[in-house]
Every structure is written in structure tokens, then in C-alpha cells.
Amino acid sequence: MNTSFHPTPRTLMGPGPSDVHPRVLGAMGKATIGHLDPEFQALMEEIKDLMRYTFRTSNALTLPLSAPGSAAMEASYANLLEPGDKAIVCINGVFGMRMAENVRRMSGELVTVEDEWGTQVDPEKLRAALIANPDAKVVGFVHAETSTGVCSDVKTLCALAKEHGCLSIVDSVTGLAGVELEVDQWQADVTYSGTQKCLSAPPGISLITFSQAAADRVKSRNTPVQSWFLDLSLLMAYWDGEGGGRTYHHTAPVNAMYGLHEALLMVKEQGLEASWAKHRTMHNALYENLSGLGLEFVVDASYRLPQLNLVKVPEGVDEAAVRQQLLKEFNLEIGAGLGAFAGKVWRIGLMGYAARQENVQLCTSALRACLPGR
Ligand code: PLP
């Protein structure tokens, strides 16, 4: 017989989704109103304002998308690229690879700049690619590579793109609110993120912001954006109230937007700098505890993401069995390694509401219990 679903409450310390803050869940349980209701329209304006605060931007073209981070990645390339346009994509993990696939599928001309997994995007390699490809129009890279736990230097990479007349696309799905990101100061052109990492909200919504230069590129396209759903100019007719009312584009996930609003509000209440500092402090605590168990961190400390930690699986340990035991006995989820790191590492997230002292303690004692002799 079918019955209601009652998930076992877990502690989510994987690569996302991360623990959702109770305030966000509470907000999402409020009464659903119409997506064109004046009260909802007022909320939409607040969401855009709070997004500008969190991205540190005054970009007019700033809005959430009713779809997860992958849709924001696709929207970035779909709106900036026209068939035959050349794009340079920096790859140092899974999500850079996905960016490259987006360029291919949008009939763009792809140039890749590759770095070893577990290291940063190398600005010198990007510079060489820009010099070798003066006709490139776009540079894409991942700020916080969730597959490797590496933070790349957004400021330097965006400056290089600008110097060579390219627009930049920055994936900060895992970065936003976890590590420093200054969209305006660093001159990032298209930056996007997701709800399920350092914002402490459930998955399913993404956030995207376009600089004036990027917005102008979209306006001056010769061909329509290949995706109707992700066409920014159509989306803005719904998200931008200016110049005479909003028009229906799609039915926004109203309650998910309540959740996004509450999550962004909490970031503002706490303060963005405090949010960055919290992730750093919790990372330091985890590092100290796990080092005490003799576990090693993979990524160099100078570019390690505090919110996503790659920990080496000790010799002779079955990494999947440990994760299963953690889930079964401690209701604790951590992530497996991907690609080049499959079977060799665990990915331990400390993102948003999951970045708490009690989670650090739970993860430490649970791992100790699963790794006899430590
Ligand atoms: N980019 C990065 C860096 C990510 O970590 C993720 C998801 O983990 C995505 C893009 C895709 O986001 P989503 O799974 O919400 O579609």
C-alpha cells in the first residue's frame, strides 16, 4: 500500500544538497499565492535585491531561474553564444567539463584550457589561450570546483578575459556565501549559483546575474537564444516589473521562492563577511579534528575550499563501505570522489547550515568509529 513519505532526517555533509535551515523549510510551508499576485511581485523585487547583496553587484539583470544550477550554466552559454562563436573553457574538474559540453551543444567553437584535477585554473595558461585565440568571445570557468574542492582566482581570471575583450562566465554554485566573491569589483560578466550549497536552501532553484556588457551582448544577438525557457529577454518580461507590468512566462515555483528569499535574508542578517568567516572557522575545526585522526586533505591549503573538503581514503579502507556505515549508523551523508578521484577520496561538505560545530563533532566521531585503530 502506498503511504506518505517520511524521510529519515540526515545530516548532509556531502557535496550538496547541504542541511536546510529550519527557517527556510518553515518559509516554504507558507500558503501558496499566485505567481502574479501583487504580494508575490513584491517578494520578487526583494529576492533580486537580496541577490544583489549576496553577489555584491548592482547588476540590473539579476534573477533566479526556476531550475537547478545546471540550468544556470546552460542559460549562461545559451544567452551569450551564437552558433560559431568561440569560447574558451577552463577545465579542472567535472563542472568545467560540463561547461565545455554546453559550448559544443550550442554549436560554439570550443577551446579548452586544462589543469590537473585538484589544482587551480592556471591564469598563465588562460593568457596563452587568449593570445592564441584573439577571436574568442567568452571565457568560462568554475570558481569553486565541487568535484575537487579547489577555489580558483576569479579576480585574476575575469581581469584576463576583460583585457582580451572576452566576457566571463563564472560558476559559483558552491562558492556563493562560502568564499569571497565580488561580482562588480572583479568585473565578472555572468555569474551563477544554486540554492543547495552555502545558502542552506533545498535544491531546485538557481541564481544568475549579468553585467551591463553581458546584457548588451544578449540584446544585440543576431539569432534567437536556442532555448525558449532560458531566453533571458523572455524571462525578464516576467522578472522585471519596469515599463508596465509583468507578463506570464512560466509558473514560478512560488514556495521555492519563499525559501530562496528566507535563505538570502539570513545571509544578509548574518552579513556576507561573517558567512565567509563561519565557513573558514568550521573548516579549520574539521581540519584539526581529522588531522588528529591521521587523515590527510588533498588540496593545497592556499586554494582549498573551506566548504568542500577532499579527504584521502586511508590505504586498505573501502571508501563506499564507510559511507554506507556513516549513513546507516549515524544518518550522516558524506560524498564520494568523482572522476580522477573516484574511490580515492571522500568529499566532506561544510556548507551553509551544515557548517556548524556539532556537525564537525559528529563527522569526527562517526569517522573515528568507522575507522578502527584511529
Ligand atoms: N556547478 C557546480 C560547481 C556544481 O557543484 C553543481 C552541482 O553540484 C552544478 C554546477 C549543477 O547544479 P545542479 O546540480 O543544481 O544542477
Description:
There is one protein chain. This protein has 374 residues and is an alpha/beta fold. The protein is 40% helix and 15% strand. It has a seven-stranded mixed β-sheet with strand order 2-10-9-8-5-3-4, sandwiched between helices. The chain has a three-stranded antiparallel β-sheet with strand order 11-14-13, covered by helices on one side. Strands 1-12 form a two-stranded parallel sheet. It binds pyridoxal-5'-phosphate. The site of pyridoxal-5'-phosphate has 13 residues, from helix 3. Pyridoxal-5'-phosphate (PLP) binds at residues 16, 68-70, 73, 95, 142, 146, 171, 173-174, 194, 203.
Concise structural overview:
With 374 residues, this protein is α/β, with parallel strands linked by helices. It has helices at residues 22-28, 38-55, 69-80, 94-105, 123-132, 154-163, 212-219, 232-239, 254-270, 272-292, 319-330, 357-370, and strands at 11-12, 61-65, 86-91, 109-114, 138-142, 144-145, 150-151, 167-171, 190-194, 206-210, 308-312, 332-333, 335-336, 345-349. 40% of the residues lie in helices and 15% in strands.
